[in-house]
Design a protein that fits this description.
By secondary structure, the protein is an all-alpha fold. Helices cover 75% and strands 1% of the residues. The protein contains 16 helices and 2 strands. α1 packs antiparallel against α7, α14 packs antiparallel against α15 and α15 runs antiparallel to α16. The N terminus is likely disordered. It has a two-stranded antiparallel ribbon. The protein has one domain: Growth Hormone, Chain: A (Up-down Bundle).
Length: 501
């Protein structure tokens, strides 16, 4: 079990590339979890929309249904980070929540590996529940390795972010090959083995974390017991609903469900931010911080709705309209997607170095400005894709360089936004709500994921002809959001300068 040394309070711990040694454990746990998640996600739409006959048969779903289910799945994965963060905050503690979540994820992938159509949605459900416990809480522990004001925090999250992309690279490489060329369930099984490695690694090396995130928030024991009682009741109700759905007692239209789920997530976000601002008893400064995080939340939602097209509409574009041969040999569709993690591993140290050097010169862009850079990159990426679509309308298939360039620009946008967002939520979240605030950060990914599925379905409803108009609308969203972020950053700068003078 973890020792009593408080690693999170030691500024002298530089054992892992100048960072606390507990980051080693979190780095490799996240790496294997992301290997399993992205490896399976690369197969998801292809498997669902694949023909039910012939070699490697799929489920035969329509593109609209497949994209909607993909969006629901991505949305659910990140939405469950909110109750997962709450459970860690109040009952489990962050370290224990990560351990339980990792085991459930592994069980989910092994369930998907069973060659039975009936177990498909059960496997997805288990992955969703496990990821809800692991994803936000492992990010919270990263922040707890550092003291308040430690300048290493942002670069620490960038290093941690590299683990995500190393893992996703492995997932795309291994799971895509096995799933597309050997059999879908072989790919799902490889994802389960990867997650099993993560479970074993975390179990044996969690002692490096010390007491960072080992205990839930302090509260009266009576209050905690009340939370435990209601949590058990909620789990029972949720289990009944899930069982009813899996057994066919509840019939769901994926597209309609995705639309209502998007509205539901939006309402949850609005009410939670309203609660924090009006009822949580926060100080004036904490409320100002919440307003900043709310702006970043909205921008992140729009960003992920484009980024997650890689597993949806862009994956179908790669399969149906792109030449996937290298020196005469075919490659899996999913192999194009590991361009993103490869680029992240290459460019993450460069971006971290840029922010560090700008900070030394007192020129480090504010969080909103960095987010604006991410939005502008995303807009440029879809300008590239519109050109690819126009070319494919004339002479398909097109070269894979169009998607590779798109993923490169996605990566630059991601590095300007995602690790920066983690650092912002770690720095500005009210301390007693930190686990839930990381869950709220991932709620932006949830909204973006569901929106990505709906937009992907719209983009594919008439094949190539419907892609360009949808992508054009997305470009307009990103440009407007980027301009708003720049204006906010400029106004904030002048207000702070005038107040300080």
């Amino acid at each position: 079990m973890a020792n009593s040394t408080n690693i999170s309070s030691s500024a002298n711990d530089t054992a892992f590339f100048g960072h606390p040694k507990g980051l080693i454990t979190l780095f490799f746990t996240e790496m294997w979890e992301r290997m399993s998640y992205y490896g399976m996600r690369a197969l998801l739409v292809l498997y669902m929309s694949g023909a039910v006959t012939g070699f490697n048969p799929g489920l035969g779903f329509s593109q609209i249904d497949a994209q909607a289910i993909y969006g629901i799945y991505v949305g659910m994965v990140y939405f469950m980070c909110i109750p997962g963060g709450w459970l860690a905050d109040n009952i489990l503690g962050y370290q224990r929540a990560v351990m339980i979540g990792a085991v459930i994820i592994a069980l989910g992938h092994f369930t998907l590996a069973l060659p039975l159509t009936q177990t498909f949605f059960l496997g997805l459900t288990l992955v969703v529940l496990g990821t809800g416990l692991l994803k936000s809480n492992i990010s919270t522990i990263v922040g707890k390795l550092y003291k308040d004001g430690d300048p290493r925090r942002t670069s620490g999250y960038t290093i941690f972010y590299m683990s995500i992309n190393i893992g996703s690279f492995l997932g795309f490489l291994i799971c895509s090959y096995l799933g597309e060329f050997i059999g879908w369930h072989w790919g799902f099984g490889a994802a389960g083995i990867g997650m099993l490695f993560g479970v074993i690694q975390y179990y044996y090396f969690r002692g490096l974390l010390g007491d960072a995130g080992i205990k839930p928030n302090n509260m009266p024991e009576k209050q905690r017991q009340t939370y435990i009682k209601w949590s058990r009741f909620t789990v029972i109700v949720m289990g009944i609903v899930i069982a009813a759905g899996l057994l066919g007692f509840i019939s769901i239209d994926p597209r309609i469900f995705a639309e209502y789920f998007l509205y539901f997530l939006g309402v949850v976000a609005v009410f939670y931010f309203a609660y924090l601002l009006l009822l949580a008893g926060l100080t004036y400064q904490e409320k100002k911080n919440i307003l900043l995080l709310m702006l970043l939340f909205v921008a992140a939602m729009f960003f992920w709705s484009g980024f997650d097209q890689s597993g949806g509409s862009l994956s179908i574009f790669a399969r149906d309209y792109t030449d996937l041969t290298v020196f005469g040999y075919p490659i899996p569709v999913g192999w194009l997607q590991f361009a993103n993690p490869l680029f992240v591993v290459i460019f993450a140290p460069i971006f971290a170095g840029i922010w560090t050097n700008l900070a030394r010169m007192n020129l480090n862009p504010s969080y909103p400005l960095k987010f604006a850079i991410g939005m502008f990159f995303m807009a440029i990426s879809f300008v590239i894709m519109i050109a690819a679509v126009e070319l494919a309308l004339v002479s398909a298939p097109v070269g894979m360089q169009w998607l590779i360039i798109t993923y490169l620009i996605h990566t630059w946008g991601e590095l300007a936004l995602s690790p920066v967002g983690l650092a912002a939520f770690s720095e500005y979240s009210p301390k007693k709500y930190q686990g839930q605030m990381f869950g709220l950060w991932f709620l932006a990914s949830s909204l973006g994921g569901v929106l990505a599925g709906l937009l992907g379905g719209d983009a594919l409803v008439e094949g190539l002809e419907s892609m360009a108009p949808v992508f054009d609308s997305m470009i307009q969203f990103y440009l407007v959001a980027g301009v708003v972020l720049v204006l906010f950053a400029v106004v904030s700068y002048y207000l702070n300068r005038n107040s300080s003078s």
